[in-house]
Amino acid sequence: MTTPDPAAGGPVPARAVFRLAAPALPVLAAEPLYVLVDTAVVGRLGAVPLAGLAVAGVLFAQVTTQLTFLSYGTTARAARLHGAGRRSDAVAEGVQASWLALAVGVVVLVVGQLVAGPITRVLGDGGPVADAAASWLRVALFGAPLVLVTLAGNGWMRGVQDTVRPMRYVLAGNGLSALLCPFLVHGWGSWQGWGLEGSAVANVIAQSVVAGLFIHALLRERAAAPPDRPVRLRPVPALIRGQLGLGRDLVLRSLAFQACFLSATAVAARFGASSVAAHQIVLQLWVFQSLVLDAVAIAAQALVGAALGAGGADRARAVARQVARYGLVLGVGFAVLFAAVYVVLPRVFTSDPTVLAVVPVAWWFFVAMQPVAGVVFALDGVLLGAGDAAFLRTSTLLAAVTGFLPLIWASLAFDWGLAGIWTGLSAFMLIRLIAVTLRTRSGRWAIPGAVRT
Predict the structure, then answer these.
(1) Helix, strand or coil for residue 191?
(2) Which residues does 231 contact at the CB level (< 8 Å), separation at least 6?
(3) Does residue 3 form part of some domain?
(4) Which single residue of 70, 169, 352, 431 has CA 20 to 30 Å from 438?
(5) How open is the CA angle 6-388-81, to the nearest 5 degrees?
(6) How many domains is the chain built from?
(7) What range does the domain containing 51 cover?
(8) Structure confidence by residue, pLDDT tens digits, 334-347
């Protein structure tokens, strides 16, 4: 299939978007899918282990949420270089991002082991739920460097418009995790299994396999590079500093997400194990479907970055209009789907009647926000592909401070329960929708060139 000229004006063929978006879907869903599998398996152990997983899962998710610049920032830089015809330089961004991922991952592992107990006691109930969360988290943290290497690998591969190999790598890891998790949690025959900790062990094993495959891909790119444009494997401080510059804004943006979702889990925990377990089920479905919607945005990142790298600002703006429409259609489709499976889907994750009784409070907020989320995540992808990280930082912080956080803490003060928490999430998404729509329509983000200045 012929790749469209990234500099040409007008809309790109729908098949070009689908070619990148379809393989990106399982990659985006990887980490939430790990936790969804864990939720379904651990839910059979009872409310306390499931609540412990809720607290620990949100904490571990901050590793990827807080450090998304290793993926999205690398895509933005690599895509522009790829569009300018500099593939070796685009792959070099992946090498440097991988070094950065390993360094940061080791720090996360060491610091996380030291603070796992105190943090889970603050977010949990200070008793059995906190103990369960700390136990799971201490094992799962050994996967932190591996998850970050995977983020970096996804970033540079998206930048060179290769989303097929990452899909294969992730499917291998997810399949292995799904096979190991029930066995390690519940045991087999006379062996009783490791309980909650078994799910964390399964994740670490799977993450090791996926990270190894991404490193192997870098080595293959190095071997295939032309002699006059080699891909060097040693750390290059100048490139790492460039990635950190873009990463600064993305980290601050991620902090807004971190503050919101940690606050939501902490407040839900104050309403009891049943409330936090119900929140865990709906929240993990929210994270999962959000990243599924973002599959179209991954295509937008690669296409927008390549177009701007080749000097095609008109093409980049056309892609933005297209993915907004695609995101809206997908969001409406998800709203219909989740409304239809309302009775049966929560029972996949738990049979506890006290948890199932609370789930509907959050569920219908979740359904109503699907079309909004479809547009927001799609346009986030456009602006990330253009390297417009400063705007995304500011708008996300504004949405957190004026929308999510006030309602979250008011729900605790006035005993609004999960209804208050999910009202806050709805306000957060609506403010972001207004911001990214206005920014995209302005066109000020479409700055051409192999490197954004």
Answers:
(1) strand
(2) 88, 91, 92, 95, 218, 221, 222, 225
(3) no
(4) 70
(5) 40
(6) 1
(7) 14-442
(8) 999 999 988 888 88
